[in-house]
Amino acid sequence: MHAESLPAGKAAALKAFEGMAAEPGVPKPDPILVVDNVVRRFGGLTAVNVKHVEIQRGSITALIGPNGAGKTTFFNQLTGFDTADEGQWTFNGQAMNGVSAYKVARQGMVRTFQLTKALSKLTVIENMRLGAQSQKGENFFRGLIPGLWRGQEDEITAKAEDLLQRFKLDAKRDDFAGSLSGGQRKLLEMARALMGDPQLVMLDEPMAGVNPALTQSLLGHVKNLRELGMSVLFVEHDMDMVRDISDWVIVMAQGEVIAEGPPDSVMSDERVVDAYLGAHHDAPLSAEEEERQLHEAEAELDKESTE
Amino acid sequence: MDWTLIFSRAVEAGIGSEAIIYALAAIGLNVQFGYTGLLNFGQAGFLAIGAYAIAVTVATFGLPFFLGVGIGLLLAAVMALLLGIPTLRLRADYLAIVTIAAAEIVRLVVRSVALSDTFGGTDGLQAFSGSFYDMNPYPPGEYGIPPIIGFDNRSMWVLTVGWVLVAIASFILFMAMKSPWGRVLKAIREDEDAVRSLGKNVFSYKMQALVIGGVIGSLGGFIFALSRSAVQPDLYSTDLTFYAYTVLILGGAARILGPIVGSMVFWLLLIFIGTGLENAVNSGAITFITVNQVGAIRLMLVGLGLMLLLIYRPQGIFGDKREISIDAR
């Protein structure tokens, strides 16, 4: 079978999703993240209203939806950067609602940002070192005695150099991160997130502002995360990328999950097409309506040409 | 023109107690603003706490001098905690507003009539530095390099203790800023959400920076009180804070030697210009201003100098332009 030529992680993910019903809120065999009734309101606007959603462990899950669908807000809730008004969610079976952002990251759920947050006034290697967890020298008093943290710092540096090499940033090791290109910053941000050995990597628009030449390399790195046993949840607008790398796609519109499924079938789902194309908002509903709109347009054109 | 007098005053100010006080105030600001990006506009309040802690403990309550030192350090830390708890979760500007108000509250409390039995009102307090000068190892006499530098034995004792404090504070910061702890602070200065997403407790680090900077500021208050053997509330007004910022920016923010050299250069220039102008007016070399106007002109020159500095060299003497937090475009 052709499945044998696939990398192990991809094959396992495909197997897990095999025969799963493509409907919103479908249960997964081994969920790493389970979300229930998460609601976030801004004044009168309900930005997020997710009834139930599960993210399969070891898979690459895409979260798509038109602008304003609440994807980034939903991301912010899950990672503790914003407080949900209602709802619960569990990560590895542990309740995570109300947990502050830094604790979420320590638990193994690390995110990146839509607008890249490479720390441009630190060097690339310092950015990487910052990503490592439970550093002894990050305590003020222990930090004063280099002997207490030097050993760990060397280990962290070795690990960072390893990752930089993998992400082809090793030549930039001692440059300020501010001197990197947009795509390199995305790579650095992803590599830095990996310094903390996360179980779930959450990428907010990893392809936004990336030079096409770097796109393939970034895609390769995301796929590689799955091979290394990590789970990935990402928000993306680039449909080619979604089709290329994701095992499962969750579609949000107006704050709700409207569809779920494998990439190929979900994109032909009528609800999804409607959500993206604006659900016939401007399309004429009847033959008379169409006639009237045509006349209006012609009148408009005539007026312009006489002026 | 008496050039010897002008140079002697300027050099003495450059290494004297003013330079120490402002160096300590600016080192504290350097932790908060230079490295962490916190806008503390109430550093004068931390100096006031240090100064009044010694004065009140000894002069009002007749308790030992070192107890006053301990109380000063403790109160500075408590003040930082009180200011930080409500404001550090909010945007940076709120801390600036709260600290500038808190420093004024401290000053208004110690100068109030109702509490003048404790704090001495607008006259302040005296007669608390006896046990400090009893420890003076320098026998009476003149010290220095005549004719430029000359200090009496009391000043020598203040200068020794003061510069040792500056050295200790700077050394501790040097070690801290090289450590992973310092790396977290510098990262927070740039983007605290990024640091949060990497699993660091940003609130705790900002609080630590606020407390450490405030405690170092209170050391400046100790030297301020002891060098003058008196405390007066109006010396701890907001100009002290803004002079300290000038010193920090002149020397270079986020550099260990920045506040020290900044303070020395600042006082050297300030006194050189002030004494020089006074001398020129008295000797008839300048006729269009009077001696009484020299002080005001000196202040204008500080303002002008700070503006020029921010426009043409925002990184100060030592700073690295690529990593400064002040952006003057």
Automatic annotation (TrEMBL), chain A:
Ranges annotated as spanning the membrane: none
This protein's record includes keyword ATP-binding: yes
MF GO annotations: ATP binding; ATP hydrolysis activity
Coiled coil: none
Highest taxon, organism lineage: Bacteria
Ranges of Basic and acidic residues composition bias in the record: 292-307
CDD domains: ABC_Mj1267_LivG_branched
SMART domains, alphabetized: AAA
InterPro entries cross-referenced by the UniProt entry: AAA+_ATPase (IPR003593), ABC_AA/LPS_Transport (IPR051120), ABC_transporter-like_ATP-bd (IPR003439), ABC_transporter-like_CS (IPR017871), BCA_ABC_TP_C (IPR032823), P-loop_NTPase (IPR027417)
Disordered: region residues: 281-307
PANTHER family registered for this protein in UniProt: CONSERVED COMPONENT OF ABC TRANSPORTER FOR NATURAL AMINO ACIDS, CONSERVED COMPONENT OF ABC TRANSPORTER FOR NATURAL AMINO ACIDS-RELATED
Protein name, entry field: ATP-binding cassette domain-containing protein
Automatic annotation (TrEMBL), chain B:
Keywords, in A-Z order: Cell membrane, Membrane, Transmembrane, Transmembrane helix
Transmembrane segments: 6-31, 38-59, 65-85, 156-176, 209-228, 295-312
Record's keyword annotation contains ATP-binding: no
Membrane topology: Multi-pass membrane protein
InterPro entries: ABC_transp_permease, LivM-like
Signal peptide region: none
Record GO terms (molecular function): branched-chain amino acid transmembrane transporter activity
GO cellular component, one term: plasma membrane
Major location (coarse): membrane
Pfam families for this protein: BPD_transp_2
Subcellular location: Cell membrane
Protein name, entry field: Branched-chain amino acid ABC transporter permease
